[in-house]
Specification:
There is one protein chain. The chain is mainly alpha-helical and about 220 residues long. The chain has one domain: Serine Threonine Protein Phosphatase 5, Tetratricopeptide repeat (Alpha Horseshoe), CATH 1.25.40. About 65% of the residues lie in helices and about 0% in strands. It is built from nine helices and two strands; from the N terminus they run E-H-H-H-H-H-H-H-H-H-E. It has helices at about 15-25, 30-40, 45-60, 65-80, 85-100, 105-125, 135-150, 155-170, 195-210, and strands at about 10, 210-215. The protein has a two-stranded antiparallel sheet with strand order 1-2. The protein starts with 9 loop residues before the first strand and ends with a strand. It binds adenosine-5'-diphosphate and magnesium ion. The site of magnesium ion has 7 residues, from loops.
Length: about 220
Amino acid sequence: MGAPIAVDHVLSVDDWMTGSAAAIEAEADHLTQLDSAIGDGDHGINMTRGMRAVTAALDDADEPAPGKRLILAGKTLVSTVGGASGPLWGSALRRAGRSVGDGALDGPGLVAALDAALAAVQELGAAEPGDKTMVDALGPAVAALRERLDAGDALGDALAAAADAADEGARATTPMQARKGRASYLGERSVGHQDPGATSTALIIRALGGALVTPG
Ligand code: ADP
Ligand code: MG
């Protein structure tokens, strides 16, 4: 057995979005259940509709640049999802796309893009960590990804760590009291339920691991 050959992987925007759409569709009932407990019960439907529209828009688009494809995905989410999650994830993907620009979506490019996405969500929604929102899944995911890549991990391993961090972050929203979004109207009654947006965010982060491709 020879030494493993080092291969530089990049992310396929289309594979990421297709994988996210499939995961969200498979979990749509669960997401709706979570949103029924502390919101208005539309999160599974919102995200399913949005992600289906994203994959359809990408299928129709000739533009090859990953940055542009992310911007298209974001615009599509904003225009197809009525709930808070549409504009939030939509802005996140648009900003991620602008961050990628004409560059490649490789490890460092992805860290910068997800950082930009997190900043966009926080600018638009003004949520801080601990407010029981998607920020509580996205924040730890970006931090874990950066940490593991800085430590020299392969992108696939770093993505697995980011997905675990997002899952853990989503689970950690259960004991929190919501301070942003519809769930905040419930005050203390929002405690004891996992946040739907953090849960779908963890699915979207997990889907990155299935979107690794070899450039060429
Ligand atoms: P709506 O609340 O309008 O029905 P969704 O049900 O699709 O929209 O999405 C709800 C999710 O959106 C929440 O679980 C939360 O994670 C996220 N969210 C709501 N408001 C904010 C905010 N201000 N900042 C970050 N995320 C938010
Ligand atoms: Mg809702």
